[in-house]
Write a structure and sequence with these properties.
With 236 residues, this protein is an all-alpha fold. It has a domain of 109 residues. It has 8 helices and no strands. α1 packs across α2, α1 packs parallel to α3 and α6 runs antiparallel to α7. The longest helix is centred in the middle third of the chain and has 25 residues. 10% of the residues are buried. This is Bicarbonate transporter-like transmembrane domain-containing protein. Belongs to the anion exchanger (TC 2.A.31.3) family.
């Protein structure tokens, strides 16, 4: 989901491939060298907001533009890493003792609001036509009004169904049925299990439904040209 949002906000310059690859690389490095257990490794909503503003700023600059966006964003990350090293060396984390619990709750509320905003925008977008550059065949039946409407309804059903079942599985330990280890397993891994289950449901539609309904995440293969060109940003 973060990869798709990044792809939409950066016109495909950053996509699911870069999101998964960066999360895997950072996760491995942090597991080997990191010393802080409570740390979000990977892409989150504030990260997407930062890269979105960087992209919009780069597009407006004649000496940057879309071609130099990745190189410029890379230097932003390098300087950010240097500042984080300095903060860690001088033990700046002690400043957190000056903050009250309200600051943490406000930050948590911000993340919640951002997630809700993107969820609502995503559901609403399922009822509309995709971007012109994402339409391969304008005459395809999936772009007819009735199938766009069906696509939106399926998006609502799958979204609400996933949310409801995921919340239910979180309370599996208090269920009155099922053996103990199974309830603990469902409570710990219920959310990813429900993602798999509802994804499987989306492939069980009748054969009369066009193959493009519901819409699915576009993820280019790592060895395709659209993905390989991003790894040569160091040459710029």
């Amino acid at each position: 989901s973060f990869g798709e949002q990044l792809s939409n906000e950066t016109d495909g310059i950053l996509s699911t491939v870069e999101t998964l690859a960066s999360t895997a690389i950072c996760g491995i490095i942090h597991a080997i060298l990191g010393g802080q257990p409570l740390l979000i490794v990977g892409v989150a909503e504030p990260t997407i907001i930062m890269y979105t503003y960087l992209y919009k700023f780069a597009k407006k600059q004649p000496d940057l533009g879309e071609q130099l966006y990745l190189a410029w964003a890379g230097w932003v990350c390098i300087w950010t890493a240097i500042m984080l090293f300095l903060l860690a060396m001088f033990n700046a984390s002690n400043v957190i003792s000056r903050f009250t619990r309200v600051a943490g709750e406000l930050f948590g509320m911000l993340i919640t609001v951002l997630f809700l905003q993107q969820a609502i925008k995503g559901i609403v977008s399922e009822f509309s036509m995709p971007k012109d550059d994402e339409i391969s065949d304008p005459s395809s039946p999936i772009y007819q009004f009735q199938w766009i409407y069906v696509n939106g309804l399926l998006g609502v059903i799958f979204s609400i169904g996933l949310l409801y079942t995921a919340l239910k599985t979180r309370r599996a330990r208090s269920w009155l049925y099922g053996i103990g280890w199974l309830r603990s397993f469902i409570a710990d891994y219920g959310v990813p299990l429900m993602v798999i289950v509802w994804t499987a449901f989306s492939f069980t539609l009748p054969s009369k439904v066009p193959s493009g309904v519901p819409r699915r995440l576009f993820s280019p293969l790592p060895w395709e040209s659209i993905s390989l060109r991003h790894w040569t940003v160091a040459k710029v």
